[in-house]
Amino acid sequence: MDSWGALSVEFAASAVSARDDGSTKRPKTTIEKLPDKVLLNIFSYLSHREICRMARVCKKWRMIAYDTRLWRDVSLRPEISGLHVGSLESLLGLISIRFGPSLRYIELPIELITHTVLHELANKCPNLTHMLLDFSTAMQLHDFSEMQAFPTKLRYMCICLSEVIFMEGFMRKIYNFINGLEILHLIGTYEKVEEEEEEIYEVINVHKLKSATPNLRVINLFGINFVDDSHIEAFSSNCIQLECLAVNFCAKVNGSSLKSLLQRSRRLRCLLMNQTNLISEHVMQVEWEKTSLQELDITATDLSTECLIDMLTRIPNLRFLSAGQLNGFNDSVLKAFMELGNPKNLIALDVDSSDNLTDDALHKFLSRYGHQLWGIALSGMPHITDQLWQSVLPVFNNAKILVMGTQERLGVNIHVDQLMDGIANNCPNLQRLELRWDPENLRFSDKSQKAIDILRVKCLKLRCLVLSDGRYYETTKANFERADRTTVVRTTTNCRVSNYYLLSNYRDLIFN
């Protein structure tokens, strides 16, 4: 018997003897009796906003709430964390008293990014390695002419750019302090861009920045409207350690720099180019067979069928492929990939909304390689229904991520009880599941609770189940909540499942 079992037996025996004796009273246990280290551990599960509320309870809780070990990762952006620092003086006090040497990660909004704050962080927080500076709402910058110090141990830096504020005055002051950076995020204003054409400003000088950061392993340029192939060329000329490059939603990238990028960056394993304007001729000039590329995202890039066949048959060791929303991705591409390429190492496939793929071609591919896949996304295609999924589920015994269904109203019904039962019995390692079908197309019976029970009991690693809002969502949510798994079931309006969780640099690519 294990120690916990022994303790349980001993406690039960003592409780019985005490009840029989009648003379022994059970000690009254309250939260005040807990040791400080236990309370500290309990507090570590709370958000900083909740910890601040706990500090008002009593002197003991206030002392624990001020423990620097609870303040290693701090976001001071109110829209993200709910924490709002009213003045610079308050922040300077927090840095000295509460953060100190324990601080590893901090997020600062524009109003708190001053040379005084940065000086204090450099002097009082010697172990600070991760920093996010949010300039996205800036209309003007503070004066950094007197700035002489900046954190020197930064390994990760994320800068949220403004649409109109030029950053060079600030960047010039920090170039000498950031040569140890390994991970760089530059986040643009893609989501704020309006329909009408406006003048585009290059608000940060990428060509100078690359000279100051020779040790970068991961570069994420997300949604920056001025980034083009010249900026990719600049980074590739100086960053020989580069392993991962993401230029998602950088519309000016057309692929003219890809050949030189992959020639220079021999360590490059991950290339993410979702929603870029790649030109097939540029892509076909790359010597794919000589690259070390393993993870590729070409979603919504409008590459031709010829280009896709050329690329997928020449990449020697592809493990992750995201190729959704591509009209050129058809049966001939999938057939060529199987016969002339090397899909034997593939662990993730996303062909969302690639309507020119037939269910027959997908069935052949998945029947052959489904056993090795960890992530499969066949969403956004009206002709892919539960029948295809039911036929291939028996080979998905290693699947961790499944994304299926379309939000378009279908002429056929999806029998979700049988589907859930098939998933539960064939995918024991499942962690994330999304069903995007319209609630009106889902058919389930009075016995659907049993199918949900089987899924919940057999897929114990399941941490995210996303459904369209409707009656079936409410039923599933209630089922998981009764089992005290309250955070598993979510709606498609606030959550989406992606194969990106399987990227080798996924944790490094998280921002915001």
TrEMBL record:
Coiled-coil portions: none
GO terms in the biological process aspect are:
positive regulation of protein ubiquitination
In what residue span(s) does the F-box domain sit? 28-74
The record's section on InterPro entries has: F-box-like_dom_sf, F-box_dom, LRR_dom_sf
Q: Which Gene3D superfamilies match?
A: Ribonuclease Inhibitor (3.80.10.10)
**Family matches, as SUPFAM superfamilies:** F-box domain, RNI-like
Superkingdom is: Eukaryota
Q: What is the official name of this protein in its record?
A: F-box domain-containing protein
